[in-house]
Amino acid sequence: MALSHPTTGLTLSPGSRVGLLGGSFDPPHAGHAHITREALKRFGLDRVVWLVSPGNPLKARGPQPLERRMAAAREVMDDPRVTISDAEARLGTQATADTLARLAAAHRGVRFVWLMGADNLRQFHRWENWRQILATVPVGVLARPGDRIAAQVSVTARAFRDARIPEEAARRLPFADPPAWCFVNVPMRAQSSTEIRARGEWPESTAPAPKSS
Ligand SMILES: Nc1ncnc2c1ncn2[C@@H]1O[C@H](COP(=O)(O)OP(=O)(O)OP(=O)(O)O)[C@@H](O)[C@H]1O
Ligand SMILES: O=C(O)c1ccc[n+]([C@@H]2O[C@H](COP(=O)([O-])O)[C@@H](O)[C@H]2O)c1
Has the ipTM of the complex gone over 0.95? Predict the structure, then answer.
């Protein structure tokens, strides 16, 4: 039986195609589950890992405690191909560039793909070492209401125009040498954590944003 990695806690086989969906998941919702299933199908992935973040470095307030968000994520996403992970807390990383460098070193031979919604592609150039992220792993972007068009003309999309893989060839993405990214026009779902918190169905955290290590 395969053993989990002592630091990341993940069990991943060399050669497998693994999507990484980083998120605050504050709370997790059906939109996350939907893009995960679409990513598995469209990019031909074997697995998806939900990296439940200690806190988005760009957000002013911290989220609900990690354990609470992990437990809620397990309820929303019950699929043997999907792992709910606290790897970032274990590694002590918060910036995605650092997380990816550590995961790639810990899981050599795994074909990682960074997954995100179109809203994150729109502001990707504000992320720490964003060019390094694109130099490390292929990136799969999933359409999201309100951001589908803006994302495709964003700073990142324009700067890395030549690295774009056409949607029809999405299954090539996990095998592509970085930089490579692909935008897929999946059916869109409107769910958002902000809206769920605004409806009072999940408490708004009062915690300060966690400090970067
Ligand atoms: N409905 C959705 N459609 C497409 N992508 C989504 C959707 N909901 C979340 N995502 C993507 O999932 C990842 C994690 O999202 P996150 O946990 O921040 O949820 P969120 O609903 O965007 O939260 P918030 O409203 O607090 O910003 C991000 O890459 C985000 O773009
Ligand atoms: O590394 C960064 O600078 C960075 C800036 C913004 C967001 N991220 C990551 O993007 C993922 C989605 O964040 P969020 O809050 O939109 O769910 C999550 O894994 C964050 O850690 C990372």
Answer: yes
